[in-house]
Amino acid sequence: MKDSEKLQKVLARSGQGSRREMETYISEGRVSIDGKVAYLGDRVDGTEQIRIDGHQVKLTAQDETICRVLMYNKPEGEMCTRKDPEGRPTVFDRLPPLETGRWVAVGRLDINTSGMLLFTTDGELANRLMHPSQKVEREYAVRVFGEINEAMLQTLRTGVKLEDGPARFQKISYRGGEGRNHWFHVVLSEGRNREVRRLWESQDVQVSRLIRVRYGDMEMQRQLPLGGWKELGLKEVNYYRKLVQLKPETQSKVKVDEKAMDNAKSRRIRRSVKKHQQRQKLSTRRRHK
């Protein structure tokens, strides 16, 4: 008899979304097993016919998948959603197509935040990298507007009570500024909605720029232009897998001899991003006519 696994875990591994997203789908009655509505707590062994919104899901066995991870340099103005009702550009618009499964975003950045965003084909990896229990560090470069003093910074390190519970920065380092504009680097180990902005706003200062520069120990690659992506190699993928106690991968879709991004590739990405942005602007103008 085959070993069974939780339904949401199997769906996440098959690239349908993060485990949390799959739990929501199941709760909403959107998933069926062999023609019957699925419930949270259901387990499957891979022989069943599983559908989401009536569409059959191609299940992937644990030993068949190759975990892939992309690093994406998110520009301001893009939504962290697959489709936006208002037609605004999304972070999924320019990602490379997949033969099976789909890209799952590791957390979110709000529309006015730019910088490092990870995507993976492995929903379980995404789930663990996002989960507060793993305490994976995220570092942000922040420009704030207002008067800053040491007592205020100490409060932000010690802890502030927000509407969804206490929060604090694990580290704050000053990076310079002029007048009432100051740059800081701050570190968190959770990803609550707008947490960086809300922490600073609790001290009556406004965040005017916010850029994620690091996830775990891996930093945003400087040569990656805004709107550009790079697939991580086996060593980098296994760094993230080890970080959240998942077995290492043995294969990669990235060629072993593929060198770091050169200037020519950077230029191609920039041209592609520019064309995409121009198409988006043209589409927006047409909708508002």
Distance between the termini: 62 Å
Shape: globular
Strand content: 25-35%
The total of beta strands comes to 17
Uncertain residue segments: none
The run of helices and strands is EHHEEEEEEEEHEHEEEEHEEEHH
Oligomer: single chain
The proportion of residues forming helix, as a percent range, comes to 25-40%
Mean pLDDT: 87
Work out the helix count: 7
Structural class: alpha+beta
Radius of gyration: 21 Å
Description of the molecule:
26% of the residues lie in helices and 26% in strands. It has helices spanning 7-13, 19-27, 123-130, 150-158, 195-201, 234-243, 263-287; strands spanning 5-6, 31-33, 36-37, 43-44, 50-52, 55-56, 69-74, 104-105, 114-120, 138-145, 160-162, 165-167, 171-178, 181-188, 206-215, 218-219, 229-231. The strands form 4 sheets. Strands 7, 8, 9, 10, 13, 14, 15, 16 and 17 form a 9-stranded mixed β-sheet that branches. A 4-stranded antiparallel β-sheet has the order 3-2-5-6, with no helix packed on it. The chain is globular, with a radius of gyration of 21 Å. The model has no long low-confidence stretch (mean pLDDT 87).
